[in-house]
């Protein structure tokens, strides 16, 4: 074993006065998306003036400055563009087993979701998936999940 | 626009620095930079403080730093561009001098990341994108974003985990010779490959550490610079660009579009080509990031970054000597300080003041700093010459 020289200087310290943020996150303009997830559907928005499609959905079109948007549902199949398995979990996710997050392209767009698979080394870029939604009880929210179409990993 | 020179540089020791506050840490770098330039605070007309600040208890850190460093009344302009904050500070100070508004400006970059625990730090870093659509729903972390790049790069170009490990081995080798580096020891390919997974395929030793540190750079106009020093280092160009906040809206996951655009701007202004660069500090927050940087900066064609490291082209004396400081990977990555620490290192390199074993051989005296913010959200490319 080589010597391990690194900089770690500790000294006496005191704790700060705790600061807790509880943010309100407005969803008034994207409630349709929320309801869609509850029903197993994933929505994007499309500008009726210039045709630009937005995912994540948004109500303003910076391309043509229109606010004339319609909701469009995304297909229920897609293909994996890339993925990772998160082992070092952040605050808020410590209680979850390591999870695979994937980016999937579908309907000319890309979406993020959790891939329902155990062995990341058997998953490949280009694998086909089925897109659905699932309730995460611990966070009381619905999320997008992917399942491999052609194999079990 | 006037010519602008680097006339003084300073850097604190990087690492876990729970022995000092943010302002005490900043002063270590500012004091050294002022002394290096041979000036005092009264000569500084503008201070720019770059700090991300999302892990600290000070919510207005720039005024705290400015007061402690004896710079009250000299600014401060506070800037933030995620991990490229130091470069945004440099650009702000550079523009003030180049435009003629001031003759001497001081850019300070500082970050304390170890005042909170690792889970909190991961939760802050995981918000580096678009909170609702990424972290809130899916618990992304900062390493996870670079893992997305690594997975895609490996699948498309055959880049391997061994290639990535070689970047760690190289950068630790130089950090072992850098007394200001966070990790001053060497690692082996085997150790990198068997280190624990953080966000597969990224492992612990593919990752830059959670570091505290500061760096400072004094800039001066042509006329003042020639009065202050015999060895000015000139800023030839600073290129910049950005990319989407939402990761799903990126062009692809094979490289950083913002880097390519910033590099193109910088090369054009400096009237050089990638082949002219002799020494570079590139943004290796994870080992895959350095491999993509070789490609996006034009040192090698897209997809050949793995080969570039395997052939030793980025070693000292190779085609371009990359990250002789140890890089973010082993020198450490205190967000706000990183961009200015790159300028610190390149200034020392171009003055030929570096220790044996990590001084780049120079003929044209052209250096390049490449600093990325977020997961490719921001990019700055700076060209320096002696």
Automatic annotation (TrEMBL), chain A:
Domain ChsH2 rubredoxin-like zinc ribbon: 34-70
Domain ChsH2 C-terminal OB-fold: 71-133
Lineage top rank: taxon: Archaea
Positions in coiled-coil regions: none
InterPro entries the UniProt entry points to: ChsH2_C, ChsH2_Znr, NA-bd_OB-fold, Thioester_dehydratase-like
Name listed for the protein in its UniProt record: Nucleic-acid-binding protein containing a Zn-ribbon
Organism of this sequence: Pyrobaculum oguniense (strain DSM 13380 / JCM 10595 / TE7)
Automatic annotation (TrEMBL), chain B:
CDD domains in the cross-refs: SCP-x_thiolase (cd00829)
Residues passing through the membrane, by range: none
GO molecular function: acetyl-CoA C-acetyltransferase activity
Gene Ontology process terms (BP): isoprenoid biosynthetic process
Stretches assigned to the Thiolase N-terminal domain: 13-222
Presence of the UniProt keyword Zinc-finger in the record: no
Highest taxon above the source species: Archaea
Gene3D superfamilies, per database record: 3.40.47.10
Domain named Thiolase C-terminal: residues: 239-386
Key words of the record: Acyltransferase, Isoprene biosynthesis, Transferase
E.C. number: 2.3.1.9
Family matches, as PANTHER family: ACETYL-COA C-ACETYLTRANSFERASE, ACETYL-COA C-ACYLTRANSFERASE
Protein's name in the database: Acetyl-CoA acetyltransferase
Lineage, top ranks: Archaea, Thermoproteota, Thermoprotei, Thermoproteales, Thermoproteaceae
């Amino acid at each position: 074993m080589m010597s391990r020289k690194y900089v770690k200087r500790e000294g006496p310290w005191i704790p700060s006065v705790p600061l807790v943020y509880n943010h309100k996150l407005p969803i008034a303009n994207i409630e349709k998306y929320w309801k869609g997830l509850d029903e197993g559907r994933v929505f994007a928005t499309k500008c009726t003036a210039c045709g630009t499609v937005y995912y994540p959905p948004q109500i303003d079109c910076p391309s043509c400055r229109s606010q004339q948007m319609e909701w469009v549902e995304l297909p229920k199949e897609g293909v994996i563009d890339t993925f990772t398995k998160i082992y070092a979990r952040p605050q808020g996710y410590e209680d979850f087993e390591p999870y695979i997050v994937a980016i999937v392209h579908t309907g000319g767009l890309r979406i993020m979701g959790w891939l329902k698979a155990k062995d990341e080394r058997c998953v490949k870029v280009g694998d086909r998936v089925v897109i659905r939604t699932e309730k995460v009880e611990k966070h009381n929210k619905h999320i997008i999940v992917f399942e491999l179409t052609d194999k079990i990993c | 626009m006037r010519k602008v020179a680097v006339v003084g540089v300073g850097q604190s020791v990087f690492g876990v620095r729970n022995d000092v506050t943010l302002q005490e840490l900043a002063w270590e770098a500012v004091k050294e930079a002022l002394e290096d330039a041979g000036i005092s605070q009264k000569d500084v007309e503008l201070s720019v403080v770059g700090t991300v600040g999302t892990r600290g208890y000070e919510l207005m850190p720039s005024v705290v730093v400015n007061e402690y460093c004896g710079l009250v009344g000299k600014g401060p302009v506070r800037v933030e561009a995620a991990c490229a904050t130091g470069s945004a500070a440099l650009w702000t100070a550079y523009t003030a001098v180049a435009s003629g508004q001031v003759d001497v400006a001081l850019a300070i970059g500082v970050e304390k990341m170890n005042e909170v625990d690792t889970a909190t730090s991961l939760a802050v870093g995981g918000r580096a994108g678009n909170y609702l659509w990424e972290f809130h729903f899916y618990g992304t972390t900062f390493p996870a974003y670079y893992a997305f790049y690594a997975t895609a790069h490996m699948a498309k170009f055959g880049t391997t985990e061994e290639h990535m490990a070689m970047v760690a081995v190289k950068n630790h080798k130089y950090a072992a010779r850098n007394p200001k580096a966070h990790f001053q020891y060497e690692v082996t390919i085997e150790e990198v490959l068997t280190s624990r997974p953080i966000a597969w395929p990224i492992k612990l030793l593919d990752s830059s550490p959670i570091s505290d540190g500061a760096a400072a750079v004094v800039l001066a106009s042509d006329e003042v610079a020639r009065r202050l020093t015999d060895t000015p280092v000139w800023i030839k160009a600073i290129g910049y660009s950005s990319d989407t906040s939402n990761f799903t809206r990126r062009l692809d996951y094979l490289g950083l579009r913002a880097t390519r655009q910033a590099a193109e701007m910088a090369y054009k202004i400096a009237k050089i080509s990638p082949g002219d660069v002799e020494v570079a500090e590139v943004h290796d927050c994870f080992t895959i990031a350095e491999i993509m940087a070789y490609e996006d900066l034009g040192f090698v064609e897209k997809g050949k970054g793995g080969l570039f490291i395997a052939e030793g082209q980025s070693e000292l004396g190779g085609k371009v000597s990359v990250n002789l400081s140890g890089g973010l990977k082993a020198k450490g990555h205190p967000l706000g300080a990183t961009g200015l620490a790159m300028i610190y290192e390149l200034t020392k390199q171009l003055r030929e003041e570096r220790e044996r074993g990590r001084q780049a051989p120079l003929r044209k005296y052209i250096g390049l700093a490449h600093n990325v913010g977020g997961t490719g959200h921001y990019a700055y490319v700076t060209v320096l010459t002696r």
